[in-house]
Specification:
- This protein is of the alpha+beta class.
- The chain has one domain.
- Helix content is 40%, strand content 26%.
- The longest helix has 18 residues.
């Protein structure tokens, strides 16, 4: 049963990425606050997922398949991060944590901003890539 949950979750995430991929930046979506499972220990809203899709295609130029791979790696990272630090000084995401892992294929770190509720459930706010030297500065802290 445990292996079915990530597969079901991954298929649902792919469906939403497909929905958001061709949308214009800022385009309104239905049910933006709907919470969907992201991994075994985290969830994400449709709004946050759309934000990630928009930004990674716009700023990083990721194709649909690259975006699927990027999100899949983030799903793995959130369960087993290489680095986890407080992100409380961040003006955009106060009281959040930053989880990450270095991806040798892209020579960048994949970073995930999460907030936790009182029960400890993590909510993914955003996911981005960080240049190698900036990523390793975080690891050294």
């Amino acid at each position: 049963m445990e292996n079915l949950i990530p597969k079901i979750t991954s298929e649902k995430i792919k469906k939403y990425i497909d929905e958001f991929f061709l949308m214009e930046k800022g385009e309104i979506i239905k049910n933006p606050k709907k919470i969907i499972p992201f991994s075994m220990s985290s969830q994400i809203t449709r709004r946050s997922l759309k934000h990630i899709v928009e930004n990674r295609t716009l700023y990083d130029g990721l194709s649909f398949q690259q975006l699927i791979t990027f999100i899949s790696k983030a799903q793995e990272i959130i369960e087993n991060p290489e680095v986890e630090v407080d992100n409380w000084g961040n003006k955009n995401y106060p009281q959040s944590r930053l989880l990450g892992k270095f991806n040798p294929e892209s020579n960048k770190g994949i970073m995930i901003v999460v907030r936790s509720d009182r029960r400890g459930t993590k909510y993914v706010i955003t996911i981005f890539r960080k240049e190698a030297r900036n990523y390793f500065r975080l690891v050294e802290k």
